[in-house]
């Protein structure tokens, strides 16, 4: 007897509808009909497998160890990306306060110029010292690098930033879990060194 | 018993006990799909651990729009397929399936068809690409479009691999299928059918 159905087509008929021609053949050919039933049985076995639960392959201690040793930078990035908005807002406020403090310090001499600086779209405003023609030109844009007159100035700024950091840390301890703060501070240390 | 969403919130905050509770609850299901996709038990254990680390990494992104188990299951499938790719054990996923790898003669070569205890063990004998398609479609219930997207193949390629995988498994599991009374033929008859269609497989 001629068998027009390939093995792959018989396999496909496990969960698809035969054409009229195929149906006609299956109604006459016991061999092919048996094969289709076998493939449907195979499919039933496979679907039953979905519900089969076996002992886990993994051990919790190994997973916990791997999670604990996650690079701190990952945790920091996630904290920033996925922190709820109050936490993000608190962090932004702390960062803004630190920036203002540093800005005031580094722009101490031309403070009146800073105050007069308009929020124009120009990337950088220069204090070209209309008051003192020979004064040094300082960039006073908030994104500019601070200008220090001496090592003592730089150390003082660092100490000020350190105090800001401590205050921010204390604040975050009160609003976040200790474990996360520890991670964040560790990230800070890594970033410093 | 705490709900999944409660455990997830605690786990996001770094509570290890909540993470462990989630793992205990879903490891049987998640590890099972990894085992089925990978085949080799030792390799599967390594991949399963990577999967769980990935799940906890991604936990802050879980928005509760689906069940945690469903979400974790998706990560398990994606991560496992990536692991298979990176290990170059699934080169057939990106290219045409190796016709020889699903040939029926594998049954005769291994001689193991009568000792196979489950469809999972039989599926482990498939080539990685064919196994992935079979497990995802027939076991896990993915559509061909979803499989095509996950594996980087076409929907037609997914179907082709599936039918070849079924053809091989049908012979590997003849003792279960034919003796189970669902198929009315005996094993020799089934093998005869296999021989009749061998030209399309070998």
Strand content of chain B: under 5%
Helix content of chain A: 55-70%
Alpha plus pi helix count of chain A: 9
Average pLDDT, all residues of chain B:
78
Compute the number of helices of chain B. Answer: 12
Contiguous low-pLDDT stretches of chain B (5 residues minimum) are 93-116, 181-202
In one word, what is the shape of chain A? rod-shaped
Structural class per helix/strand content of chain A? mainly alpha
> What oligomeric state do the depicted chains represent?
heterodimer
Briefly note the structural class of the backbone of chain B.
mainly alpha
The largest sheet of chain A has its strands arranged as 1-2
In one word, what is the shape of chain B?
Answer: elongated
Question: What percentage of residues of chain B falls in helices of 4 or more residues?
Answer: 55-70%
Instruction: Report the C-alpha radius of gyration of chain B, rounded.
Output: 19 Å
DSSP strand tally of chain B: 0
Q: What's the count of strands of chain A?
A: 2
Distance between the termini of chain B: 55 Å
What order do the SSEs of chain B take from the amino end to the carboxyl end, as H and E? HHHHHHHHHHHH
What is the first-to-last residue Cα distance of chain A? 81 Å
Low-confidence stretches of chain A: 111-143, 189-193
Tell me about this structure.
The complex is a heterodimer of chains A (193) and B (202). With 193 residues, chain A is an all-alpha fold. In chain A, 64% of the residues lie in helices and 2% in strands. Chain A has nine helices and two strands. Chain A has a two-stranded antiparallel sheet. Chain B is built from twelve helices and no strands. The longest helix of chain B is centred in the first third of the chain and has 23 residues, at 16-38. Helix content of chain B is 68%, strand content 0%. In chain B, α1 (4-12) crosses α2 (16-38). Chain B has 202 residues and is mainly α. The chains are: A mainly alpha (193), B mainly alpha (202). The interface between A and B is large, with 47 and 63 residues.
């Amino acid at each position: 007897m001629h068998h027009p159905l390939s093995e792959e087509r018989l396999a496909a008929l496990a969960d698809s509808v035969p054409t009229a021609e195929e149906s006609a053949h299956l109604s006459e050919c016991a061999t092919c009909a048996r094969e289709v039933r076998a493939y449907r049985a195979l499919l039933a076995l496979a679907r039953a497998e979905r519900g089969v639960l076996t002992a886990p392959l993994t051990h919790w201690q190994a997973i916990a160890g791997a999670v604990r040793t996650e690079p701190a930078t990952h945790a920091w990035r996630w904290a920033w990306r996925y922190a709820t908005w109050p936490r993000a807002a608190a962090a932004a406020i702390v960062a803004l306060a630190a920036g203002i403090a540093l800005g005031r310090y580094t722009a101490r001499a031309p403070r009146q110029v800073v105050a007069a600086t308009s929020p124009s779209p120009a990337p950088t405003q220069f204090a070209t010292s209309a008051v003192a023609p020979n004064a040094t030109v300082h960039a006073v844009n908030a994104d500019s690098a601070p200008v220090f007159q001496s090592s003592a100035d730089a150390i003082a700024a660092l100490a000020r930033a350190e105090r800001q950091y401590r205050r921010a840390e204390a604040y975050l301890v009160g609003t976040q879990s200790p474990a996360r703060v520890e991670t964040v501070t560790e990230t800070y240390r890594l970033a410093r060194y | 018993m705490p709900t999944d969403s409660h455990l997830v919130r605690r786990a996001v905050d770094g509570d290890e006990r909540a993470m462990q509770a989630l793992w205990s609850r879903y490891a049987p299901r998640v590890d099972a799909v990894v085992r089925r996709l990978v085949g080799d038990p030792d390799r599967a254990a390594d991949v399963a651990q990577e999967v769980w680390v990935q799940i906890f990494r991604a936990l802050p992104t879980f928005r509760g729009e689906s069940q945690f188990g469903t979400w974790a299951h998706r990560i398990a499938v994606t991560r496992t397929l990536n692991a298979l790719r990176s290990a170059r054990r699934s080169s057939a996923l990106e290219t045409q399936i190796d016709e020889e790898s699903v040939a029926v003669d594998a049954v005769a070569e291994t001689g193991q068809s009568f000792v196979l205890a489950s469809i999972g063990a039989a599926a482990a004998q498939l080539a990685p690409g064919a196994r992935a398609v079979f497990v995802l479609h027939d076991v896990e219930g993915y559509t061909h479009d979803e499989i095509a997207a996950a594996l980087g193949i076409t929907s037609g390629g997914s179907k082709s691999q599936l039918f070849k995988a079924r053809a091989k498994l049908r012979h590997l599991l003849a003792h279960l299928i034919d003796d189970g009374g669902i198929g009315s033929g005996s094993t020799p008859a089934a093998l005869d059918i296999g021989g009749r269609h061998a030209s399309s497989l070998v």
